[in-house]
Design goal:
The two termini are 23 Å apart. Helix 1 packs antiparallel against helix 3 (46-65), helix 1 packs across helix 4 (71-92) and helix 5 packs antiparallel against helix 6. It is built from 7 helices and no strands. By secondary structure, the chain is mainly α. The protein is 70% helix and 0% strand. It is globular.
Amino acid sequence: KLTSDEIKLEMMFAIALVGLNIILAEFEYFRTIPFFHPSQLRAPWLYPALLNIQFVFMFTLAKILIKNKWAITRIAIIYFSIRLALSAVLFGSGSWPIFPPMIIISAILFDWMVYKRSDLAGIVSAAFIFSVSFYAVESAYLYLLGIEKYIPRNSIEVLGVSASAVAVSIIAYWCGKKISEVISSMPVKT
């Protein structure tokens, strides 16, 4: 049963993900820059790699702090809805961002893996599955949009980013446990 505090926390995580995407905005608006821009010098693999790592960190942290089933899926849906609305507004004003990353399918897999096993090993497995599935789904999505530039060209890239995502999930797991300890030790006001 969802409480209002948990719903607020899920919305906060979704909004934080939208805010983190500001770091990657120059990759998403490459079509609207009519002149040479330094973002065009960066390696194309950087965009999906950074997305992947930030999603894994935030989803792992959220899973430790929010105990309800399917919290990550709800966060992904809220995130996608906000990004879709922002893209629609910006598209209407003449800007042309890449449409929101397709994280819902990968978020469902993450939730499913953690539902089966919620300890550190389950989180690490979920992070790896999320990372690989994110690349698969995002590659198909970018191909359909006609943006092949960001599709990985070899499996070493996918495995390297997946290994980084696993490392980030361990850090997020540890951070989440420490935050939970601090919260549980706080006195309750009556």
